[in-house]
TrEMBL record:
Domain Kinesin motor: 3-348
Matches recorded under Pfam families: FHA, Kinesin
Family to which the UniProt record says this protein belongs: Belongs to the TRAFAC class myosin-kinesin ATPase superfamily. Kinesin family.
InterPro entries in alphabetical order: FHA_dom, Kinesin_motor_CS, Kinesin_motor_dom, Kinesin_motor_dom_sf, P-loop_NTPase, SMAD_FHA_dom_sf
Subcellular location: Cytoplasm, Cytoskeleton
Record lineage: Eukaryota, Metazoa, Ecdysozoa, Arthropoda, Hexapoda
Protein name as it appears in the record: Kinesin-like protein
SMART domains: KISc (SM00129)
């Protein structure tokens, strides 16, 4: 069992408090937090000044102070503990509690330049995963992000169109949200994208207390699975990390809330009052009277928030509560209430356990039994136990193979997703890859898939399955040769090499010799296959240097023509007798030069128009191909979702089979106990007779 850890953090004065000339009423020394009632007309220090002791007291009021608590310090004390819990197989929860505008969201989310607990925990999680992967440990991470707004659950990863999800309760796994989106993430960038997408959908509004007041509770959940072998025995744990940003408690007279804001505040206060009731009840439950615990009802279901946090409050989780408080005397009542809630939360006792996969646990128990049976057979020379030993060994081997196969399939899906760079982009799906590849452009309107071939370092051969030598890319269709062509990729340069007699075209030009490939070029192979070549590295360089130069020589020449005509007219007005002949000669020379330049300009303009026409045709062809590719991308999403559903079905089937196997094992265990008892009686009988 473990108590809920409680930390208190005081923020600096905000602009509203500075304008009010607010007085500082919070003092912190070590783990102790004190609050002073400046308005109390009494000399009784117990009334004027109250002290509370917590696990951590963070002084973030003055950045120039020696004991200033930065975002990094808060993470080092609290966030690293969450990471350790996850890798040990425990559930963990961090939630920030306090009045509106007290700094809860800043502590949990932070700002882009000063990140809070949630992004720091996510980043550290993947950094430690990378270290453990080198030792052969496999990981899988899924995230979900929900909002509780006016007692309704909304899926922040799906936007605002789904804001009435149902909360259910599993008899073993506890409360969950039905239909909540879970995203499989493979790096910190993906998880950051999910956070940003969810934060953009959160409900916020301005009040007198806070310009960007959170009008809802938000729960960001990370499901972390790690698997590997420990001393030759399979090991798999599942940890859930709940990172909760609560809306702040508020008083209508202080926030100036009316209309919709007042209604929101009422729902916020209702859920927070229920949270306070749950904290108080759990704190009382931990107090023993006459050796027995008091029979107290815990009102988890009185609000959606407390229902979803049921495991985190008194259940299977290691929980940290951060009480965010204001330093100003104008918020004395709310601050004192927050400190009292936090003080009660210290007494909550949770019962965290390692969340081990049942199949893995069964395998470990079988191995223990096998070891014991072998020891008995060795010591007592019991040949009649050989069949039982072989049966358990076969069972253990079968379960181990099933577990290994399950993870092998899951990892194959993850590797495929990483290779393709499959990621969500709003309602669509984007396929990214950091390796050079060919994308098939198919004119068949019935084709619904997207075909992508990665090019390996060195040679990638293209041909048919009839080739004597196995081809890296095998194609079918008219005009295909068994060994059609080869693409080499060395030192960042891709070269297309057609084989003798093979029909290969590059951008509508028939190839008879090797040609270098550039980003976006179109390759025709045989008479039925068209591919677009993509080189992500080259594309990135092109994007960096992308500029439009419109000032060509042709445009400059066309701009100079009117000026030249004006000059000629001005020259004709000059009728000085001495310079007349010279001027005429100059004008004639300029006219001849102009005519030549005009003729040259017209020729170059015709050539330019031809090139422009060819460019427009190629552009149109590429746009059509791109449109087809975009349309086909949607099918990838459907296929991926189908595979995900299939994987979930397999998991459920495995759970059912596991339960059946557990029942069978229990029966066999009972039989084994009876046999052991009989064996013991026989042994005692033999000893007594001898």
């Amino acid at each position: 069992m473990a108590s809920v850890k409680v930390a208190v953090r005081v923020r600096p004065f905000n602009q509203r408090e500075l304008d009010m000339d607010a007085q500082l009423i919070i003092q912190m020394q070590g783990k102790t937090t004190g609050i002073l009632n400046c308005k109390a007309n009494t000399r009784d220090e117990s009334i004027r000044y109250k002290e509370f002791t917590f696990d951590y007291s963070y002084w973030s009021h003055d950045s120039n102070s020696d004991n200033f608590a930065s975002q990094e310090l808060v993470y080092n004390d609290l966030g690293k503990e969450v990471i350790d819990c996850a890798f040990e197989g425990y559930n963990a929860c961090v939630f920030a509690y306090g009045q509106t505008g007290s700094g809860k969201t800043f502590t949990m989310m932070g700002s882009p330049e000063n990140q809070g607990l949630i992004p720091r925990i996510c980043k550290a999680l993947f950094e430690k995963m990378s270290e453990n992967s080198k030792r052969g440990t496999t990981h899988r991470v899924q995230v979900s992000y929900l909002e509780i707004y006016q007692e309704r659950v909304a899926d922040l990863l799906r936007g605002r169109d789904n804001n009435s999800l149902k909360v259910r309760e599993h008899p073993k796994k506890g409360p969950y949200v039905q239909g909540l989106t879970t995203c499989l993430v493979t790096n910190y960038g993906h998880i950051q994208e999910c956070m940003e997408r969810g934060n953009s959908h959160r409900t916020t509004a301005a009040t007198n207390m806070n310009d960007v007041s959170s009008r809802s509770h938000a729960i960001f959940t990370i499901t972390f699975v790690q698997a590997g072998y420990c001393d030759g025995v399979p090991s798999e744990t599942v940890s859930k990390i709940h990172l909760v940003d609560l809306a702040g408690s508020e008083r209508a007279d202080a926030t100036g809330a009316t209309g919709q804001r007042l209604k929101e505040g009422a729902h916020i206060n209702k859920s927070l009052v229920t949270l306070g009731s749950v904290i108080s009840a759990l704190a009382e439950l931990s107090v023993e009277q006459n050796g027995q615990k008091k029979a107290i009802f815990i009102p988890y279901r009185d609000s959606v928030l407390t229902w979803l946090l049921k495991d985190s409050l008194g259940g299977n989780s290691k929980t940290i509560m951060i009480a965010a408080i204001s330093p100003a005397d104008c918020n004395y009542g709310e601050t004192l209430s927050t400190l009292r809630y936090a003080n009660r939360a210290k007494n909550i006792i949770n019962k965290p356990t390692v969340n081990e996969d049942p199949n893995v646990k069964l395998i470990r128990e079988l191995r223990d039994e096998i070891s014991k049976l072998r020891a008995i057979m060795f010591c007592e020379q019991r040949s009649d136990m050989l069949a039982q030993l072989q049966e358990k060994e076969a069972r253990e081997k079968e379960l181990t193979e099933e577990w290994t196969g399950k993870w092998r399939e899951a990892q194959a899906i993850l590797r495929e997703q990483r290779a393709l760079g499959l990621r969500k982009a709003g309602p669509g799906v984007v396929l990214d890859s950091d390796r050079p590849h060919l994308v098939a452009i198919d004119d068949d309107p019935l084709t619904t898939g997207v075909t992508l071939y990665h090019l390996k370092e060195g040679k990638t051969t293209i041909g048919t399955e009839e080739s004597d030598v196995k081809q890296d890319i095998e194609l079918r269709g008219t005009g295909m040769e068994p060994q059609h062509c080869t693409i080499t990729f060395e030192n960042g340069v891709a070269t297309l090499i057609p084989h003798l007699g093979a029909q290969v075209m590059l951008n509508n030009t028939l190839l008879e010799s090797p040609a270098r490939l550039s980003q976006g070029c179109i390759i025709f192979i045989g008479k039925a296959h068209v591919f677009r070549f993509n080189d992500p590295a080259e594309a990135a360089e092109l994007r960096k240097g992308e500029k439009i130069h419109n000032l060509s020589r042709l445009s400059l020449l066309s701009w100079s023509t009117p000026d030249l005509a004006v000059s000629m007219e001005n020259l004709q007005l000059m009728n000085a007798d001495d310079d007349k002949n010279e001027i005429k000669v100059d004008i004639e020379n300029q006219r001849l030069n102009f005519e030549k330049e005009k003729e040259q300009f017209e020729k170059e303009q015709v050539a330019f128009e031809r090139k422009q026409e060819i460019f427009e045709k190629r552009k149109k062809s590429l746009e059509e191909a791109q449109a087809k590719l975009e349309a086909e991308k949607m099918s990838v999403k459907k296929e991926f979702e189908e595979q995900t559903r299939q994987l979930q079905d397999d998991w459920r089937n495995l759970a059912t089979q596991q339960r059946q196997k557990e029942l069978e094992l229990e029966e066999k265990e009972k039989e084994l106990i009876l046999k052991r008892e009989k064996l013991e009686r026989d042994r005692k009988t033999i000893l007594s007779e001898s």
